[in-house]
Every structure is written in structure tokens, then in C-alpha cells.
Design brief:
Blueprint lengths: L6 H4 L12 H13 L6 E5 L6 E9 L5 E9 L6 E7 L14 H4 L3 E5 L38 H17 L4 E11 L1 H12 L5 E5 L6 H7 L5 H10 L4 H8 L4 H7 L4 E6 L7 H10 L4 E6 L9 H12 L3
Parallel strand pairs: 4-5, 4-6, 6-7, 7-8, 8-9
Antiparallel strand pairs: 1-2, 2-3, 3-5
InterPro entries: AB_hydrolase_fold, AXE1_dom, CE7
GO molecular function: carboxylic ester hydrolase activity
Pfam families: AXE1
């Protein structure tokens, strides 16, 4: 079932929407204001039934001074600093329980998992609220504060993701020269964000990244989460220009253009959640060395466990 352009056209596809002229200024000022706050990181050991993995509850100060949760999972048998996988989660998911995230620590890496503020009630539990209110919004997170770049939900989440890299780098257990950011869907987009805003991420492995090429995505799919924006615009008929003006500051394609570290993407050609052309838009614009793994017969699940194995191999292959 073809849901988008043929692969030959996807490989050459470039998203043509212009960026805001002050895109860099907006994010530089946002990051400067938020990094002026102390991180106040707390790593608290947690007793679990796991015998091969040490678990630490993580808490730090994110956007606006909110306290954000996470996990740090470490191989119990380790010698010195270990490479780290910083994982950002897909839409609606939270950090869950440590037993749900065993692969990377079992492979010998530090595994840091950011708990997504205000989510964590769709496919895995979370423990971090989003204490900020919102203008009228469709249920979900895509339209919360949509008419203002300053108030938009993803401004808060992008800063949390940026700060979480600082949290991981502050751990005495982590080899900061081998720090890989990864995630699926929303998590893939967050890995693009941190690669575009930072120069100290060694590599990213974004699987079927969401939040890329917004106008293209809304033309290609009515599936949620993009469908939240479509339904909001169907009610707020005269607000489309203002909404797209906000979304332009949060497009993963723009962050991809600014990234320089190596990246290993994946895409599912039958994906109706993150349409293939939107994933290729980020890949084709990416500023650093890059590769794309194409799963011809898969949708938003893309490579599934194969993507996890690809991430493990990528970390092991770092110099």
C-alpha cells in the first residue's frame, strides 16, 4: 500500500516552506534564559527486582522551573564510564517502569529516559505533570498554546529535552564522548532538536521522527497526533496563519538543517502517522553525515526491535 511518494522521489524530496527569519534568535534566547536556572539534579538509587541493572530515579529542573522526572539505568557490572543512550519517548508515553526498558543497559550502556511532561497516560505511564495552562485546545498536546510560540507546549518539551542532555552529561558514570540521542516518533523529533541545538551529542538515531514538515504532514494524513491540529483548525477556521506561524519554530526539519553529528534515520513506507515524505524531509535536510534505513512493508512501528538493535550497534561502533 503506497501512502506517499515513490521511493525515488522521497530520496530527492525537499520541504520548501520558509523558516522564520528569527528562528535562531528565538531558540538562542530561549535556551539562554532557561539554562540560567540551576539544574538541581538528583540521582536517587531505587531498589528493584532487577539484579543486572542499577536503577536511579532522576529529577531535575526543566522549562519554567518545573521539576522533571526520568530514569538512569546502568549495567550493574561496569568498569569506569560507559556510553550513554539518551532516549526520548513517543507521543503519549511516559518513562514507565524500569523493567520496561532493559535493552540498552543490558547491552552495557547507560540508558537515560526522559519522562515527557504532561503525557504518560496513553501507552506507558509517566510521573511528570505539565503545570502550565492552555488556551482552548483539542484533547492531546499538539494544540496547547498553538497561537503563541512563547506559550506552545513544545517549547517547554524541547527545553526539557535540551536540559536532559546536561543531566546525563553530569553523571560520573557516563562517557560524555559517546553520548547518543534516540527515540521513536516524537522521541525521534526530540533527538533532532537536541542535535540541532547542541554540539556535544555524539550521534543521533531518530526512528520515524514526528513533528517534521508540518504543512506537508497535515496535507498527507488525518491520523493523530497531526489530526489534532487538523481538527482544531476545522473549528478555529480563521486561525490557520497564526497556527502555522507558531509551528514553524518547532519544525524538526529546521533543527535537522543545523545538526552536524552523524545520524541514522529509519522510515516506514506505509506510515500514516509520520508520512514518509516528512521523515525524508528531515533526513534530506540533515546537516551532518546521515543514513536512512527504509522498512518497505512497515508503518509507524518501522523496524521495531530491529531499530533497537540498530541503535545498539551504532553505539558499539563509536570510536
Amino acid at each position: 500500500m503506497q501512502v506517499d511518494l515513490p521511493i525515488e522521489e522521497l530520496e530527492k524530496f525537499h520541504y520548501q516552506e520558509p523558516e522564520p527569519a528569527d528562528f535562531d534568535e528565538f531558540w538562542q534566547s530561549t535556551i539562554a534564559a532557561e539554562t540560567a536556572r540551576p539544574l538541581d539534579v538528583a540521582f536517587t538509587p531505587v531498589v528493584t527486582e532487577l539484579q543486572t541493572i542499577d536503577v536511579f530515579d532522576v529529577e531535575f529542573t526543566g522549562y519554567g522551573g518545573a521539576r522533571i522526572k526520568g530514569w538512569l539505568l546502568l549495567p550493574a557490572r561496569r568498569s569506569g564510564r560507559v556510553p550513554a543512550v539518551v532516549e526520548f519517548l513517543g507521543y503519549g508515553g511516559g518513562r514507565g517502569l524500569p523493567v520496561e526498558s532493559l535493552a540498552y543497559a543490558s547491552a552495557g550502556f547507560a540508558h537515560a529516559i526522559l519522562d515527557t511532561r504532561g503525557q504518560g497516560s496513553t501507552w506507558r505511564a509517566g510521573h511528570t505533570p505539565d503545570p502550565v495552562g492552555s488556551t482552548p485546545a483539542i484533547p492531546g498536546h499538539m494544540t496547547r498554546g498553538l497561537l503563541s510560540r512563547d506559550d506552545y507546549y513544545y517549547r517547554r518539551l524541547y527545553v526539557d529535552a535540551y536540559r536532559f542532555v546536561d543531566v546525563v552529561r553530569s553523571s560520573a558514570e557516563v562517557d560524555t564522548d559517546r553520548l547518543v540521542a534516540s527515540g521513536r516518533s516524537q522521541g525521534g523529533a526530540l533527538s533532532l532538536v537536541v542535535a540541532g541545538l547542541r554540539s556535544d551529542v555524539t550521534m543521533i538515531v531518530p526512528h520515524v521522527p514526528f513533528l517534521c514538515a508540518f504543512r506537508r504532514a497535515l496535507r498527507m494524513t488525518a491520523e493523530s497526533p497531526y489530526g489534532e491540529v487538523s481538527r482544531w483548525l476545522a473549528i478555529h477556521r480563521d486561525q490557520a496563519p497564526a497556527a502555522f506561524a507558531t509551528l514553524a519554530y518547532f519544525d524538526g526539519v529546521s533543527f535537522a538543517r543545523r545538526a552536524t553529528c552523524p545520524a541514522a534515520f529509519s522510515v516506514g513506507l506505509r506510515d500514516v502517522v509520520s508520512p514518509p515524505s516528512t521523515v525524508f524531509a528531515a533526513h534530506n535536510a540533515y546537516g551532518g553525515p546521515k543514513e536512512m534505513v527504509v522498512w518497505e512493508f512497515n508503518g509507524h512501528e518501522s523496524g521495531g526491535p530491529e531499530d533497537v538493535l540498530r541503535t545498539i550497534r551504532a553505539v558499539r561502533g563509536l570510536p
